[in-house]
């Protein structure tokens, strides 16, 4: 029977597929860490109170990248180059989602409009990250090697999502509501397309490593396209709604240290 748990189990039990999985995850988290660190440094003077939260977001993402690298090291594995067609964060940037890296490398303060774009982009991508980690947490929270890492990263992603909701609602109340909704919708529609393409690419790479038969690969591709069809029709709306989270000021303190995995 093909299920999410059996699929992840097969990927995690094979050294080469596990190494690719962790390398992709570590690369994306590290890239997110860099982006948030640069945004925190470039926050306009009028929004400086937000800078520590953005920096905390970046520190969390860096920590997640280190965790995935530690998981590989624990199995005697080293990272592999991330295939370009699986690089979710870079594909988003290439399609104009979020703040361009050229803008972040410039030593010029961002604007309030830039911060709104950053938060809207983060609200969409953190929705995806929170859902993915919840799936892993559901199946592997008690795993002897992955459990502690999965639980910590899942908690962090939930906090990032709560932070995005709270800050976007604050900006909406300050008169940026239309810009927020317009940006959220554009980001969500682009993200679901890129997520589909990345998912297809990741499964193709995993299939080659694990020697999946053509029928199984075709079934997985069909399932990915079906998810995209649902998200394109209606599912994207969950990424653009805003509500005040139960967890307030989620990024108001220092990041929790990475769990001891050795």
What Rg, in angstroms, do the CA atoms define?
Answer: 18 Å
The helicity comes to over 70%
What best-fitting shape do the alpha-carbon axes yield? globular
* Percent strand: under 5%
**Annotation field: number of helices:** 8
Report the biggest beta sheet as strand number plus sense, adding barrel if it closes: none
Structural class category: mainly alpha
Kindly report the average pLDDT value. Answer: 95
- List the helices and strands in order: HHHHHHHH
Distance between the termini: 33 Å
Given as residue ranges, the uncertain stretches (5+ residues, pLDDT < 50) are none
Number of strands: 0
Account of the protein in words:
- With 262 residues, the chain is mainly alpha-helical.
- Helix content is 71%, strand content 0%.
- The chain is built from eight helices and no strands.
- The protein has helices spanning 4-13, 15-42, 51-74, 88-94, 101-105, 112-140, 147-210, 214-233.
- Helix 6 (112-140) crosses helix 7.
- It starts with a helix and ends in a 29-residue tail after the last helix.
- The mean pLDDT is 95.
């Amino acid at each position: 029977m093909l299920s999410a748990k059996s699929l992840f189990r097969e990927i995690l039990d094979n050294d080469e597929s596990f190494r690719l999985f962790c390398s992709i995850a570590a690369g994306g988290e590290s890239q997110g860490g860099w982006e948030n660190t640069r945004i925190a440094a470039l926050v306009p003077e009028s929004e400086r109170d937000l800078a520590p939260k953005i920096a905390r977001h970046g520190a969390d993402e860096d920590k997640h990248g280190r965790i995935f690298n530690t998981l590989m090291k624990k199995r005697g594995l080293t990272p592999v180059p991330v295939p370009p067609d699986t690089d979710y964060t870079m594909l988003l940037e290439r399609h104009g989602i979020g703040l361009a890296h050229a803008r972040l490398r410039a030593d010029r303060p961002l604007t309030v409009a830039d911060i709104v774009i950053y938060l809207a982009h983060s609200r969409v991508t953190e929705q995806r990250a929170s859902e993915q980690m919840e799936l892993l947490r559901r199946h592997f929270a008690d795993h002897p090697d992955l459990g502690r890492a999965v639980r910590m990263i899942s908690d962090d992603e939930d906090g990032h999502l709560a932070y995005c909701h709270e800050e976007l609602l604050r900006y909406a109340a300050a008169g940026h509501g239309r810009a927020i909704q317009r940006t959220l919708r554009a980001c969500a529609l682009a993200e679901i397309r890129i997520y589909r393409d990345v998912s297809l690419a990741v499964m193709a790479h995993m299939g080659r490593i694990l020697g999946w038969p053509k029928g199984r690969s075709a079934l997985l591709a069909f399932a990915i396209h079906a998810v995209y069809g649902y998200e394109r029709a209606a599912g994207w709306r969950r990424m653009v709604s805003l509500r005040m989270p139960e967890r307030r000021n989620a990024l108001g303190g220092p990041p929790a240290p990475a769990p001891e995995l050795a």
